[in-house]
């Protein structure tokens, strides 16, 4: 991650893993085939500091959304910890959990289903603060008005219903609602993917503003590298549930040390580049998350695959300050071939 | 709003004489009923395309690009209707024709691929059967030859072990492979024109790269024309020869890809290029240029140019603009009479 | 070709030919017609449902005889101005009896539906939201209830509780909640994954509040449609049971029993005792059904309980 911050991290995820059971077909049950599990997140660690915008980028099946849900405990972990401040989100219960939830909020992808159609904007935005007793009836209107304005809406919009708003406006409401309890951490799960291009930029600007004005830490989950390059300070690149590369954005995207990251970079369609392109960067398709490939899970598609890649899972190696990569070829651990 | 005669409108936008156009869309206007009356999803659209060329239709949601595409093949979703205009294919108007006429064109000379491959692949037949069916029915080939051509075709769209894969059912294939199968089905009859409606929107970027390069390859080897619809300007810029930008049902700018991308003439195109999240490594823009305001509500458009509320160059005269492209194809035309390309 | 350029047209329509102006008109009419039709259906239904009790209440005010007072001087009179529905075999005014029966039938229909709905939504909501073994158990009970032949089921309760309404109330409610539960569970499965529910969970809301504020209000609409059909169903069942002699006992007025009392004389010329009250049942049934179907059409629900 970036240079160690003077203050302690807002959030630390330590070795989190999450798998899902896979439904068996009748024939499989009869044949007593072993139960399988789908690996969504596999031993991921990351941390978020004040002032950071951490981008988590990956394609489908990378586990990025699952991570978001695990960080806010919408899903239970198989193993690992999520520390908010010094408390483990997954170890507390009841009131303690509720209290902890105040500090970390999630902005969802779909502006059309992230707002309850039966609640006015004002009620939706004010509800979290009210429920946590941070504000009373009298103060609620002021709080809601302030939040709406901060998010680019008008205080009068509090009386409107979601169906009267456009996608971009709804997303602003979702952000205002997320800010209701003054959280230190915001997680945006593909928060702009469902919006029109002209509106995406507006929302990203808003998030950047909030980050610098309020000092919140943001974890931004996306499949769009462009978003990362515009908004994030640090980035984590995921593939099939595991971190392939992580570090400061300039370093990871500018001087990438992992073939998957390089493949992603090359695959970005180039608006102004030459029209005839060389061969696609990455051949093949994502393997099934039920049977993760042996060794380095990326080896089935890797243009630089070496024999060791099929056998041994690479260890994380720091290739430059804060920049970590997991690759035998581009980030060998001091030339040592791990025993295996 | 001043009256204009139809011939005036047609004159400015009609294609220049020259090599005969494969496809000519003239004044296409498509209406949909809505609570507010009727909205025009496509409004006097004029486009043309020659053989071996790729035309990209780009715009945000509701701009009319999908509707325009589907009109070519006569697949406008009900309750929409073509209110005016023609789609001229090989000199004949396809609009309003039905039955046998269209069947010889649709699925044979003009084919289409969609955003969601799941929707166009029948889940109860193997993919091989579905492709072979195209050969048998559209080209009248025999069973054995169809099977052979199917295997060849699957190989040419990048599916390894095609003989085995042909026996698979759609649900056994990944998204990217299904997309390739759909492309295979679309090119099997050897079409002259391929319509692609957001074919890569639902797939990962690494698969998108493969699909786009496959499309370009197929297009170059067979000489077919392609119309590609996408909201992603970068995808269009990467693959198309010509670009038409649409907004609120109108074509607002049209020209070669280099012209439109490097010297955009219409304010909307300029704003779109500025706001587009284009990946530029090493460059972290602090604040993105945005297009202020909301996407247009087709039921509530201002008089004249629909981009007025969001346009930085808006002026009172905009209310009288007739949204006609000023220069005929193949020149670089724009519907804005007031603004020129920057620099 | 003339261009229809009209200042009354919304913008964007300039430059259209007269022919497309015609087509636009046609499209517009078609769209609004469908919308109007289902709205009309709802209002007609509401009218029918409301007019019957209103007339029933006002009728006696205008002055019809006591429904249960036999008047042996006027037995079996055909419909006339004095007796719009005629008189029955004991000389009672049939219309007055129908009026008197209205509160009973409405009460049974609406009350049993309300109770079934409350129970059904509760159990269905719990099953859908929490899933697991709770869901499995509740849904098996629902399946069993729905599998029962309905009439027999209710008759069994009547047998247990004896003649009178208690058995009918219990039977109808016990059977009815199953349908509400099923629909509610299906809706709940979808709603609990909706992002606004997830957002509420992330915000730390208690489950009770999430269910109350976020889940429940969004579950109600399809249940309303089911409720309308259930009301009709229940009224008809009550009428059928009374017709069979298992419902209310004479001399209490109830539509079904009135119909039954005219059965033997139906085909020998005194038709009015059975058919006219039967018509009232139909009107009420159609009214509730129209409301239910109209709402279903307007808001896009596809299921109908055929009654």
Largest interface: A-B, 48 and 51 residues
Instruction: Identify the strand order in the major beta sheet of chain C.
Output: 1-2
The string of secondary-structure elements of chain B, in order, is: HEEEHEEHEHHHHHEHEHEEHHE
Strand proportion of chain B, as a percent range, falls in 15-25%
Biggest β-sheet description of chain C: 2 strands, antiparallel
Q: Structurally, how many domains make up the residues of chain B?
A: 2
Uncertain segments of chain B: 1-18
What is the arithmetic mean of pLDDT of chain C?
A: 82
Layout of strands and helices, then pairs:
The complex is a heterotrimer of chains A (340), B (343) and C (307).
Chain A: E1 11-21, H1 26-30, E2 37-48, E3 53-57, H2 64-71, E4 79-84, E5 87-88, H3 94-101, E6 104-107, H4 121-131, H5 137-150, H6 167-178, E7 185-189, H7 197-214, E8 217-222, H8 225-231, E9 234-239, E10 242-248, H9 249-254, H10 259-267, H11 307-311, E11 317-320, E12 323-325
Parallel strand pairs in A: 3-8, 3-9, 6-7, 7-8
Antiparallel strand pairs in A: 1-2, 1-4, 4-5, 9-10, 10-12, 11-12
Chain B: H1 6-13, E1 23-34, E2 37-49, E3 54-58, H2 65-72, E4 81-89, E5 92-93, H3 100-105, E6 110-113, H4 117-120, H5 127-139, H6 143-156, H7 162-165, H8 175-187, E7 193-197, H9 205-222, E8 225-230, H10 233-239, E9 242-247, E10 250-256, H11 257-262, H12 267-275, E11 333-334
Parallel strand pairs in B: 3-8, 3-9, 6-7, 7-8
Antiparallel strand pairs in B: 1-2, 1-4, 4-5, 9-10, 10-11
Helix pairs in contact in B: 5-6, 8-9
Chain C: E1 3-4, E2 16-17, H1 18-62, H2 94-130, H3 132-147, H4 150-161, H5 165-191, H6 195-202, H7 207-243, H8 255-261, H9 272-299
Antiparallel strand pairs in C: 1-2
Helix pairs in contact in C: 1-2, 1-9, 2-3, 2-5, 2-7, 3-5, 4-5, 5-7, 6-7, 7-8, 7-9, 8-9
Give the gist of this structure.
Chain B is an alpha/beta fold.
Which key terms come to mind for this protein?
heterotrimer, A: 340 residues, alpha/beta, Rossmann fold, 8-stranded mixed beta sheet, 4-stranded antiparallel beta sheet, 12 strands, 21% strand, disordered C terminus, B: 343 residues, 2 domains, 7-stranded mixed beta sheet, 12 helices, 11 strands, globular, disordered N terminus
Textual characterization of the structure:
The complex is a heterotrimer of chains A (340), B (343) and C (307). By secondary structure, chain A is an alpha/beta fold. In chain A, strand 4 and strand 5 form a beta hairpin. Chain A contains 11 helices and 12 strands. In chain A, helix 5 packs across helix 6. Chain B has 343 residues and is α/β, with parallel strands linked by helices. Helix content of chain B is 32%, strand content 21%. Chain B has 12 helices and 11 strands. Chain B has a 7-stranded mixed beta sheet, with helices on both faces. Chain B has a 4-stranded antiparallel beta sheet with strand order 2-1-4-5. In chain B, helix 5 crosses helix 6 and helix 8 runs parallel beside helix 9. Chain B is globular and about 65 Å long. With 307 residues, chain C is mainly α. Chain C has a single domain, classed as MetI-like (MetI-like fold, Orthogonal Bundle), CATH 1.10.3720. Chain C has 9 helices and 2 strands, in the order ββααααααααα. Chain C has a two-stranded antiparallel sheet. At the A-C interface, helix 3, strand 6, helix 4 and helix 6 of A face helix 6 and helix 7 of C.
């Amino acid at each position: 991650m970036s240079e160690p911050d003077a203050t302690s991290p807002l959030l630390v995820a330590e070795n989190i893993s999450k798998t899902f059971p896979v439904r068996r077909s009748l024939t499989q049950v009869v044949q007593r085939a072993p139960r399988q599990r789908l690996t969504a997140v596999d031993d991921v660690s990351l941390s978020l500091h004040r002032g950071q915008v951490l981008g988590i980028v990956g394609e489908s099946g990378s586990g990025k959304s699952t991570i978001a849900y695990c960080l806010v405990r919408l899903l239970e972990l198989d193993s690992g910890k999520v520390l908010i401040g010094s408390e483990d989100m997954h170890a507390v219960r009841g009131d303690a959990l509720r209290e902890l939830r105040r500090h970390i909020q999630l902005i969802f992808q779909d502006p059309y289903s992230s707002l309850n159609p039966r609640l006015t904007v004002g009620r939706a935005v004010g509800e979290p603060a009210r429920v946590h007793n941070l504000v009373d009836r009298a103060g609620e209107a002021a709080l809601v008005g302030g939040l709406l304005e901060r998010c680019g809406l008008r205080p009068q919009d509090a009386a409107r219903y979601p169906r009267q708003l456009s996608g971009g406006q709804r997303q602003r409401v979702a952000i205002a609602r997320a800010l209701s309890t003054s959280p230190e951490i915001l997680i945006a799960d593909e928060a702009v993917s469902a919006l029109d291009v002209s509106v995406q930029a507006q929302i990203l600007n808003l998030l950047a503003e909030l980050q610098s004005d309020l000092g919140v830490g943001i974890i931004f989950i996306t499949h769009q590298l462009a978003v990362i390059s515009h908004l994030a300070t640090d980035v984590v690149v995921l593939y099939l549930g595991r971190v392939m590369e992580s570090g400061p954005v300039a370093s990871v995207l500018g001087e990438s040390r992992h073939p998957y990251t390089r493949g992603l970079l090359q695959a970005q369609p180039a608006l102004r580049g030459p029209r005839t392109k060389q061969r696609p960067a990455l051949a093949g398709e994502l393997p099934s998350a039920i049977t993760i490939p042996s060794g380095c899970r990326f080896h089935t598609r890797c243009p630089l695959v070496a024999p060791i890649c099929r056998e041994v899972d690479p260890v994380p190696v720091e290739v430059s300050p804060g920049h970590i990569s997991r690759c035998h070829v581009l980030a060998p651990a001091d030339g040592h071939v791990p025993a295996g | 709003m001043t009256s204009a005669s139809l011939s005036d409108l047609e004159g400015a936008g009609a294609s220049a004489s020259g090599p005969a156009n494969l496809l000519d869309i003239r004044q296409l206007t498509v209406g949909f009923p809505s609570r507010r009356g009727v909205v025009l999803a496509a409004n006097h659209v004029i486009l043309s395309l020659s053989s071996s060329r790729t035309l990209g239709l780009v715009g945000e949601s509701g701009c009319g690009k999908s509707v325009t595409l589907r009109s070519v093949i006569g697949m406008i979703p009900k309750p929409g209707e073509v209110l005016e205009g023609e789609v001229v294919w090989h000199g004949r108007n396809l609009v309003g024709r039905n039955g046998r006429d269209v069947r010889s064109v649709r699925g044979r000379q003009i084919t289409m691929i969609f955003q969601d491959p799941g929707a166009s692949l029948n889940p109860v037949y193997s993919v091989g059967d579905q492709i072979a069916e195209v050969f048998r029915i559209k080209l009248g080939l025999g069973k054995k030859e169809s099977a052979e051509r199917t295997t060849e075709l699957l190989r040419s769209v990048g599916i390894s072990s095609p003989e085995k894969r042909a026996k698979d059912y759609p649900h056994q294939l990944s998204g990217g492979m299904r997309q390739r199968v759909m492309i295979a089905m679309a090119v099997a009859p050897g079409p002259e024109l391929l319509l692609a409606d957001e074919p890569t929107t639902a797939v990962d970027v690494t698969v998108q790269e493969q699909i786009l390069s496959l499309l370009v390859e197929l297009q170059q080897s067979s000489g077919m024309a392609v119309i590609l619809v996408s909201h992603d300007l970068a995808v269009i810029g990467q693959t198309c020869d010509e670009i038409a930008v649409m907004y609120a049902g109108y074509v607002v700018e049209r020209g070669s890809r280099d012209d439109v991308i490097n010297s955009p003439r219409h304010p909307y195109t300029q704003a779109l290029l500025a706001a587009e999240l284009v990946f530029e490594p090493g460059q972290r823009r602090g604040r993105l240029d945005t297009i202020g305001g909301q996407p247009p509500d087709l039921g509530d458009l201002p008089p004249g140019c629909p981009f007025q509320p969001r346009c930085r160059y808006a002026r009172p005269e905009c209310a009288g603009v007739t949204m006609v492209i000023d220069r005929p194809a193949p020149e670089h035309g724009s519907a804005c009479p007031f603004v020129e390309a920057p620099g | 070709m003339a261009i229809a350029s009209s200042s009354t047209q919304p913008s964007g329509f300039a430059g259209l030919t007269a022919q497309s102006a015609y087509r636009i008109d046609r499209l517009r009419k078609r769209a609004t017609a469908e919308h109007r039709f289902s709205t009309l259906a709802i209002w007609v239904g509401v009218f029918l449902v409301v007019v019957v009790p209103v007339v029933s209440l006002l009728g006696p005010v205008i002055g019809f005889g006591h429904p249960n007072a036999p008047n042996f001087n006027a037995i079996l009179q055909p419909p006339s101005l004095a007796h719009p529905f005629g008189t029955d075999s004991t000389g009672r005014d049939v219309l007055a009896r129908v009026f008197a029966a209205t509160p009973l039938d409405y009460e049974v229909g609406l009350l049993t539906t309300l109770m079934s709905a409350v129970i059904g939504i509760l159990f269905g909501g719990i099953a859908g939201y929490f899933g697991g073994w709770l869901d499995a158990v509740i849904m098996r009970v629902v399946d069993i209830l729905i599998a029962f032949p309905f009439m027999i089921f209710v008759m069994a309760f009547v047998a247990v509780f004896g003649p009178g309404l208690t058995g009918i109330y219990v039977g109808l409610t016990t059977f009815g909640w199953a349908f509400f539960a099923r629909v509610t569970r299906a809706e709940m499965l979808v709603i609990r994954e909706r992002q606004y529910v997830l957002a509420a969970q992330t915000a730390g809301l208690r489950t009770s509040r999430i269910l109350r504020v976020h889940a429940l209000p969004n579950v109600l609409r399809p249940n309303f449609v089911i409720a309308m059909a259930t009301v009709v169903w229940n009224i008809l069942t009550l009428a059928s049971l009374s017709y069979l002699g298992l419902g209310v006992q004479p001399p209490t007025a109830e539509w079904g029993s009135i119909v039954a009392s005219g059965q033997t004389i139906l085909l020998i010329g005194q038709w009015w005792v059975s058919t006219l009250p039967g018509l009232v049942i139909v009107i009420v049934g159609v009214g509730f059904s129209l409301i239910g179907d109209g709402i279903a059409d307007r808001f896009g629900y596809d299921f109908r309980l055929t009654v």
